[in-house]
């Protein structure tokens, strides 16, 4: 991720960072940019502050949160046991879009871990997140700053749209460089296992560990729940990262035909295609996207928001290539499809 060094943070932003740290110390919640998506941050040692996150997101209280740290040096305060694999992954990828699940240290609130014996931790690479963490001094619990089940925010304006009146302050760090949530690797029980694919790919992890990580098998799309395929929590709800407009994933071979058919029936159809050329049908909103997975991920959530805002009857998305480099994007699109169209059903 290409980020300005800390020295280039504008004075007005430094003032806002100090104000945010003060609000966090007082037990308030704050919108925080990271290189992945915007987070909704609270003092991870303050259960009352952490409960405000769940209230603002309308998120079930048993969903665990990720603790953000300014440096791996703080890890012993949060994790009871740091395996050699975990230490190597932290050294290789922090600061960066990797979350490690580790056995939790004594004193980590149940509100953060969802009552589990593990804790999720990461050191983000966004200069403003790092500056805020340094100024605050402790760990910040932060899930994505969207209402539960909705598309994750990748700009400060998205956070305002999602949670505007519920947060004390939103720090503006520009559009997120990565654009999708961190890769999550469980290092708490033996062989490292990828629970959620992200910008740190299985290949990159293999190069560090010297062997491939386990990968949590994907459930059928209909069984997709928010985040890691099967988070170790009870009662997780179905379907997320979802636009209100019904979204379908289709292979290129079927895309043009299906879009034309729906349009002929009088439906308004928005299409996100990458290998598949625009058929030039004026009844379709056809958006061509590049064939680079990192660029696709960077723009994905903003595109889904924009597509949703068109008020079309259907969003059709070309299925990404079946290549490991596309695993994270394919995962998020599958969840978006599974959870889409809720407005029609209720
Ligand atoms: O990139 C990211 O990870 C962003 C930014 C803000 O850092 N955060 C994020 O948080 O995506 P959230 O809450 O939307 O997703 C975190 C997921 C949870 O859904 C949870 O299932 C998983 O991480 N998680 C956290 N702690 C865990 C634990 N102890 N065991 C298993 N999964 C855990
Ligand atoms: Mg989330």
TrEMBL record:
SUPFAM superfamilies found in the cross-reference section: YrdC/RibB
Signal peptide feature range: none
The organism's place on the tree of life at top rank: Bacteria
The YrdC-like domain, residue ranges: 14-200
Top class in the EC scheme: transferase
Residues binding ATP, per UniProt: 59, 118, 142, 144, 152, 196, 241
Keywords: ATP-binding, Cytoplasm, Nucleotide-binding, Nucleotidyltransferase, Transferase, tRNA processing
Catalyzed reactions: L-threonine + hydrogencarbonate + ATP = L-threonylcarbamoyladenylate + diphosphate + H2O
Main localization, broad class: cytoplasm
Localization (cell): Cytoplasm
Binding site for L-threonine: 36, 68, 122, 182
Enzyme Commission number(s): 2.7.7.87
GO cellular component, one term: cytoplasm
One of the GO BP terms on file: regulation of translational fidelity
GO MF: ATP binding; double-stranded RNA binding; L-threonylcarbamoyladenylate synthase; tRNA binding
Biological role stated in the UniProt entry: Required for the formation of a threonylcarbamoyl group on adenosine at position 37 (t(6)A37) in tRNAs that read codons beginning with adenine.
Family in the record: Belongs to the SUA5 family.
Protein name as it appears in the record: Threonylcarbamoyl-AMP synthase
């Amino acid at each position: 991720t290409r980020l300005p060094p800390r020295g280039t943070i504008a004075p007005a932003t430094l003032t806002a960072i100090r104000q945010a740290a003060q609000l966090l110390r007082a037990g308030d919640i704050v919108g925080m940019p990271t290189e992945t998506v915007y987070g909704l941050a609270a003092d991870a040692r303050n259960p009352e502050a952490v409960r405000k996150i769940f209230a603002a997101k309308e998120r079930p209280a048993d969903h665990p949160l990720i603790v953000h740290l300014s440096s791996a040096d703080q890890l012993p305060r949060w994790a009871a046991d740091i395996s050699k694999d975990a230490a190597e992954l932290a050294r290789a990828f922090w600061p960066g879009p990797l979350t490690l699940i580790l056995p939790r240290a004594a004193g980590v609130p149940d509100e953060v871990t969802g009552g589990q014996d593990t804790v999720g931790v990461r050191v983000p690479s966004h200069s403003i997140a790092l500056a805020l963490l340094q100024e605050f001094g402790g760990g910040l619990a932060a899930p994505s700053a969207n209402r539960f089940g909705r598309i994750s925010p990748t700009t400060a304006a998205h956070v305002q749209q999602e949670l505007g009146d519920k947060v004390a302050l939103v720090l503006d760090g520009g559009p997120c460089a990565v654009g999708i949530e961190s890769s999550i690797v469980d290092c708490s029980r033996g062989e490292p296992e990828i629970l959620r694919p992200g910008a740190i790919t299985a290949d990159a992890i293999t190069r560090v560990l010297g062997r491939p990580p386990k990968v949590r098998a994907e459930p059928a799309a209909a069984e997709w729940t928010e985040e890691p395929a099967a988070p170790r929590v009870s009662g997780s709800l179905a379907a997320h990262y979802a636009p209100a407009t019904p979204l379908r994933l289709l292979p290129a071979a079927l895309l043009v035909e299906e879009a034309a058919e729906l349009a002929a029936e009088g439906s308004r159809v928005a299409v996100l295609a990458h290998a598949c050329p625009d058929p030039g049908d004026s009844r379709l909103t056809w958006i061509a996207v590049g064939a680079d997975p990192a660029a696709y991920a960077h723009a994905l959530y903003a595109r889904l928001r924009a597509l949703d805002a068109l008020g079309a009857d259907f969003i059709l998305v070309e299925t990404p290539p079946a290549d490991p480099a596309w695993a994270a994007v394919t995962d998020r699109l599958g969840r978006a499809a599974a959870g889409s169209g809720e407005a029609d059903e209720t």
